[in-house]
Amino acid sequence: MAEYKTVKVVKGPRGWGGPLTIKPTDEKPLVVSVTGGGIHPLAAKIAEMTGGEAFDGFKGGAPFGKIACVVIDCGGTARVGVYPMKKVPTIDIYPTKPAGPLFRFITEDLFVSGVRIEDVEQVD
After folding, report:
1. Rounded to two decimals, what is the model's pTM?
2. Which of 2, 31, 59, 86 lies deepest, with the highest CB count within 10 Å?
3. Domain extents in the chain
């Protein structure tokens, strides 16, 4: 069994939502990056700080039940709402607010936006 740590993720400038508390578990070890072009530096940092496993969501699908959190780069409607709809803590690098057809699922307890690396801090 891995030893996981907790981080707090707060909204960045012009961001919305959160803060989110992220702590992977053996059942949910993945810090998924759905940003295109590999693992985003923010996802890599969260994985490093928590002991989670950085995972490129574009190279393979991760079951929602295995995801500790997801880092996205979406200013539109798709990924912004899909992950919160599935109750996955969602961290958007863009300063997005709830919008689109899935806006009702985008809640402060599941979504934070405008996040930069400096908006992530160790809790324990």
Report:
1. 0.94
2. 31
3. 24-122
**Which amino acid, residue 21?**
T
Q: What is the DSSP string of 87-98?
A: T--EEESS---S
Q: Are 73 and 95 in contact (CB under 8 A)?
A: no
Q: Report the amino acid identity of residue 95.
A: P
pLDDT tens, position by position, for the chain (124 residues)?
Answer: 779 999 999 999 999 999 999 999 999 999 999 998 899 999 999 999 999 999 999 888 899 999 999 999 876 656 677 889 999 999 999 998 888 888 899 999 999 999 999 999 999 7
Residues 6+ positions from 61 with CB-CB distance below 8 Å: none
Question: What is the set of active-site residues?
Answer: 74
